[in-house]
Amino acid sequence: MPREVRERQMLDAAVEVFARRGYRAASMDEIAELAGASKPLVYLYLNSKEELFSACIRREAESLIQEIQAGVEPGDSAERRLWCGLRAFFAHTAEHPDGWAVLSCQARIHGEPFALVVAELRQRIVDLVTRLIAECAQPDGGRKPLSAREVSGLAHALVGAAESLAGWANHRTGAVPSARETAATLMNMAWVGLENLTGGRRWPPAAAV
């Protein structure tokens, strides 16, 4: 079997075990057994449990970023690109719940160097969303301009809300919302709010001051 195929099997098995057991409780024996490989072979390919976990995080992070980028057509309007990017994000996290669990939970609670990789992933997504919001907020007709600080704050808020919604959707009991429904939930909050801001409507209104 080619090395890249065998290594992919090991990473697939490791993501499943890390998501289910957590980093500390996961055993290399269980990962090797699930991958259909010997433990010495897993160590030969991936050196240590720490390096295996890091490889899982990087692979899942890159896969998520690529999915979001593939879902966004450069020629579309900023509004549609934001919508398609959110839909791609929720579709990917729903289709790869173990990978999302490793990224959103396991990698963050075990400190460096794992948390740094996730922070890099998050910043790449924030940067993408920041550009889209900045384009959406360009003064046009009656639209009001937004400051760079406002755009940055909105981008971080949107990404945080998306992460929270993905966890909510993936751990619901009963009917699970589709990626389209979850993305629409966030667009209903974010896009309507952005339209209000660029239209000059802000919190607090005069009546609430």
TrEMBL record:
SUPFAM superfamilies: Homeodomain-like
Secretion signal span: none
Stretches assigned to the HTH tetR-type domain: 4-64
Keywords, ordered alphabetically: DNA-binding, Transcription, Transcription regulation
Gene3D superfamilies membership: Tetracycline Repressor, domain 2
InterPro entries reported in the protein's UniProt record: DesT_TetR_C (IPR054129), Homeodomain-like_sf (IPR009057), HTH-type_TetR-like_transc_reg (IPR050109), HTH_TetR (IPR001647)
DNA-binding region: 27-46
The protein's name in its UniProt record: TetR/AcrR family transcriptional regulator
Annotated source species: Streptomyces orinoci (Streptoverticillium orinoci)
